[in-house]
Amino acid sequence: MKTIQFREAICEAMSEEMRHDESIYLIGEEVAEYNGAYKASKGMLDEFGPKRVIDAPIAELGFAGIAVGSAMNGNRPIVEFMTFNFSLVGIDQIINNAAKMRQMSGGQFNIPIVFRGPTASAGQLAATHSQAFENWYANCPGLKVVVPSNVYDAKGLLKSAIRDNDPVIFMESEQMYGDKGEVPEGEYTLPLGVADIKREGKDVTIVSFGKILKEAFIAADALEKEGISCEIIDLRTVRPLDYDTILNSVKKTNRLVILEEAWPFGSVASEITYMVQEKAFDYLDAPIQRITTADTPAPYSPALLKEWLPNAEDLIKAVKKVAYK
Q1: How far apart are CA 278 and CA 175, in angstroms?
Q2: What's the predicted TM-score (pTM) here?
Q3: What per-residue confidence (pLDDT) applies to 85?
Q4: Is residue 129 flagged as an active site residue?
Q5: Which among 42, 146, 158, 207 is least buried, having the fewest CB atoms inside 10 angstroms?
Q6: By the 8 A CB rule, do 297 and 132 touch?
Q7: pLDDT at 325
Q8: How far is CA 288 from CA 153, 204, 259, 309, in A?
Q9: What is the spatial distance between Cα 212 and Cα 267, in angstroms, rounded to a whole number?
């Protein structure tokens, strides 16, 4: 095993796949000469050249559309958005072309494309640069949505996403690029659509994904000292969602709390809540609780931002509520 940063895991995954397959290329703003806005493509221009690591103009609709068209013609593009907030400029290409082309063409066209970049809040970036879009894209049939929470998962999941023959939305976090973790020296991949039980427990199931999962570990450590054992499930893939892992855990613990860094209305937590009450209602010993951001645009003030974001304290209160403590 070796220890690398999250940004290096992303770079290694892309580079390893590009060495195996000449149809793969990376396109986005500042991905080449500048080595990526977050240095996730450092050194790739030198290795693969300007025809496979392409600096795009500030025109997400344009370069997203170019990538979709090239995927229809046998290439496997990786599109980097400097932030998924900017993907809204190109969302027509993602939703109306990438996601739907396979069905609309009667299976004549696969769209093997990865749209990747950071999502959700990253400090004082204010309302228009702090949104989480996992539930937005997961709402669209034809897209797969992947949100890694750590270095190991990021590399293995991205390699699988690049190899997938359907469009994949791969969501990272600006605040995780410097995180360090261990990865194997050799080749490995992780399957899409399979959740991971990061911590086993018997009293309460906590489901989360992405960088906010860190708060779940803080909360679980504190609750363990009070005699409450928490099982932590990392979804890893939001669509397809691994319902079975969640259901099996709830049937064991009989309680569920969902932690998500997104607005509450129409959230991933809402989908999980519906599914569990439909398929495991008789196993529940308490109403399902969900912890999300406040239902407002993200504030700029650090004090307000702290109140807006879900945190370990909120999670501890919710766990105690379902455990009747």
Answers
A1: 36
A2: 0.96
A3: 96
A4: yes
A5: 42
A6: no
A7: 87
A8: 27, 10, 11, 20
A9: 15
* Catalytic residue list contains 60: yes
Place of tokens 């969900």: 290
Compute φ and ψ for 215, nearest 5 degrees: -65, -30
Helix (H) or strand (E) holding 263: none
- In tens, the pLDDT along 112-132 reads 999 999 999 998 998 999 999
- CA separation for the pair 31, 162 (Å, rounded): 17
Q: What DSSP string describes 236-259?
A: SEEES--HHHHHHHHHHHS-EEEE
HSE of 33 in the Cβ direction (CA atoms, 13 Å)?
A: 5
So what's the pLDDT on residue 113?
98
Each residue of 89-125: b (16+ CB within 10 Å) or e? ebbebbbebbbbbbeeeeeeebbbbbbbbbbbbbeeb
pLDDT at position 302: 93
* DSSP tag of 283: G
The answer to whether residues 168 and 114 touch, using CB atoms and an 8 Å cutoff, is yes
Query: Of 129, 134, 172, 271, which residue is the catalytic one?
Result: 129
Residue type, 129: H
Q: ∠ at Cα 35 (33, 37), nearest 5°?
A: 110
> Which parts of the chain have pLDDT scores under 50?
none
pLDDT score, position 251: 98
Write the secondary structure of 98-159 as one string of H (helix), E (strand) and C (coil).
HCCHHHHCCCCCCCCCEEEEECCCCCCCCHHHCCCCHHHHHCCCCCEEECCCCHHHHHHHHH
Catalytic residue among 8, 17, 29, 60: 60
